[in-house]
Amino acid sequence: MSKSFTRPFAPVKALAHPTRPFAPLRLLAPIPLAVSLLALSAQFNQLAAQTVTMAQPLSLDAAIAMAQQRGPSARSAERTRDAARYRDQAYNARLLPQISLTGDAPTYSRAIIPVVQPDGSTRFAAQQQRQSSLGLQLGQRLPYTGGDLFIQSGVTNINILGERDTRLWRSNPVQVGIRQPIFRLNTLAWDNREQDLRIDAAEQMYLENRESIAQQTAALYFDLFAARASLANALSNAEVNDTLLTLNRGRYEVGRIGEDNLLQSELQVLRARNSLEAAKLSEQRAEAALRLQLGMPNDAMLALSVTNEVPDVKIDTAVAVAEALRNGAALRDADLQMMQQKRRVAEARRNTGFGATVTASVGYNQTAETFNEAYKSPLQSQQFSVGVEMPLIQWGARRAGIEAAKADQERVETDVKVLRERRIQDARFAALELEQASRQLVTAAKADTVGSKRFEVARNRYSIGRIDINNLFIAQNEKDQALEAYVRALRGYWDAFYRVRRLTLYDFVTGSRIR
User: Fold this and answer.
1) Tell me: the pLDDT tens digits for 20-37?
2) What is the torsional sign of CA 246, 250, 253, 256?
3) Distance from chain centroid for Cα 397
4) Which H helix or E strand runs over 115?
5) Are residues 128 and 158 in contact, defined by beta-carbon separation less than 8 angstroms?
6) Which domains does the chain have, with CATH numbers?
7) Is the full-model pTM beyond 0.85?
């Protein structure tokens, strides 16, 4: 469902969005068109059609789609999202079994070393030695316990140089082992929780960035629309005031008006010309800003197709608040911060007290003077060790560390609570502002219609001498103000519309979440 407002310069076209089937609802009766505004709009469209290969003038939905696809802000948002996805892929890949190859190239050493003799005495002797090794290891993190499981195989060659070279091979065909911390924090489990929240927040942030791009594009789109409306209005005023000045000069020559009225008419012409020059510059600046947002060439011209239809949606503030709390990227990031603070408290408690590390392995090994013999009839090998760490005196460091972590956690909890309340208020008032913007748009459209009609009547009456020039210029100023208010109201409506979408990540037209 949509609302439709009759405007003298905006072509009535349906929004080109496949998921927004608007049915036009006429609120105002048709009025005569302002010829000068239509003529200038047609000139804009013809010039854009000659310069830019576009099948039709650019609608708001088409501009938003273009900005979200190829605009610089869209590329930045996509690269940020892709970086987060790649980091998530890298993290998940590191959870899989890791295979690594290690080794030492031949190393040479020459030194005097102690040698234990058969009778128990020690003799120092010079020795030259060359050694090399090669190993293959498969490691796997254990998410439920936080330990490491490893399977490895390797071979080492030692060559003692001297009068009688001695070569020794030591093989380790297979060895299976585990390293398991006890009474320590399971860092892998916490890493998994944090990573889930981190990638979820990144995906939601990307959606919010897209809606921010839509809101920015809508603002720039209607900035250009407002600039062109002002330019068209300034051109119309300049033409009208030139005609009035010619008329007043004739009346002054025959003595029907005084010199003060003639001078006032000349002053109004000068003001209209200044306004026209300022409007031209504003139009060029607004067009350049929109081209940059859309990623279009600097010399591209833009023809706008501004519709007089807007979505007729009734937003339940409770739904808006619920969706904002469920979909907000800032709240996902707040959950991540809460998780990190809980982890720091757990680390302060678990990692500063009693702890131990158990290492156990079982496998086979053998040694021989030749490579082949080193792999024959391997002997069983076992290793088991328990490393213990038990602080005795810390002078209150552990307790202070725990209290500091708790204080940081309470601070983050307070910040998150404030963030949630602020999010609730933002979503609620954004929904109310959209309803208010809709009502203001209706009023502004009616006021613009009345202002345009009143000026036409005033100009006709002045032409036949029924009103003075002051009343005519008052009507002209009121017409200009009503036009500016309508354009501002139209821009404000779409800004409020996309602000609600960005805050809630919910499409209230189709009744579905934005994905």
Assistant:
1) 332 232 233 333 333 344
2) negative
3) 42
4) strand 98-116
5) no
6) 2-86+194-335+413-513 (1.20.1600.10), 97-184+336-412 (no CATH)
7) no
